[in-house]
Design a protein that fits this description.
The chain is α/β, with parallel strands linked by helices. It has two domains: 167 residues, Rossmann fold (3-Layer(aba) Sandwich); 52 residues. 30% of the residues lie in helices and 21% in strands. The chain has an eight-stranded mixed β-sheet. Helix 3 links the parallel strand 1 and strand 2. Helix 7 crosses helix 8. It is globular. It starts with a helix and ends in a 6-residue tail after the last strand.
């Protein structure tokens, strides 16, 4: 299934499918999407033939229960302890959760022995903080409760029986133009915002091109302002 996803989404972009392109997913995997919103990602997986799809989203109007896809109006902590999943995904949802430690402990309970968790979220580093400080767009208060460094996130995992096995940086030009707009008091949803109306924004095509180039360089040097963490259970040491 990873090969199929790779054909559909061959280029980087703001898509969780691009994240999954090199993972061989079995169609009988039990998959949990935490903070799934309306469930778009799960519905797409359903179209691809996956059968065991669960989402939790406290802001949906009501539970959605189909034969092979269910979305519950719950927090992850509300799921039963006996539930177990082969793949658990937090696609820019972890930073919105008010109880990260409790969430990680619950994640550890829910992840199967050979399961994989993917957490995609902002990460603070010295480069972006020196450049923008409190104008850095990923702070995004009050929507983001916490923004981690890679080290602080690893510390959060240390006593949970989980470990980061791989980190991929996937920041984009958004980190620059959105932060520059914050400095100028231009909201993201303003008519002058590049996100809403590129032609009426303060940026030239050349500037955006340079932002994209710089973002790619930062990602290659593990200095992007957001990252994808691939997490598994810490192997048990044999005595």
């Amino acid at each position: 299934m990873g090969k199929l996803i790779n054909k559909i989404f061959p280029q980087p972009g703001d898509s969780i499918f691009y994240v999954l392109r090199n993972i061989e997913l079995k169609k009988d995997y039990k998959i949990l999407d935490v903070g799934c919103g309306s469930g778009a990602f799960l519905y797409y997986l359903r179209e691809l033939g996956f059968k065991n799809l669960i989402g939790v989203e406290p802001y949906v109007k009501e539970d959605i229960k189909l034969e092979d896809l269910k979305i519950f109006k719950l927090q992850i902590q509300d799921l039963p302890t006996e539930a177990e999943f082969d793949l658990i995904i937090f696609n820019h949802s972890f930073e919105h959760l008010p109880q990260p430690h409790e969430t990680i402990l619950k994640l550890s309970d829910l992840l199967s022995e050979d399961g994989l968790c993917i957490i995609r979220m902002p990460v603070k580093n010295d480069y972006i903080w020196k450049l923008y400080g409190s104008d850095w767009m990923q702070i995004d208060a009050p929507r983001h409760f916490y923004v981690y460094t890679v080290r602080s996130f690893q510390t959060l995992l240390d006593r949970s029986g989980l470990e980061i096995i791989k980190t991929v940086y996937d920041s984009s030009e958004y980190q620059f133009y959105a932060s520059e707009q914050i400095k100028k008091d231009i909201p993201l949803i303003s008519k002058r915002s590049y996100l809403i109306n590129p032609k009426k924004s303060m940026f030239t095509k050349k500037q955006i091109k340079e932002y994209k180039k710089k973002s790619n360089e930062l990602n290659k040097n593990n200095m992007g302002d957001q990252a994808i963490f691939f997490i598994k259970r810490t192997p048990t040491k044999k005595g």
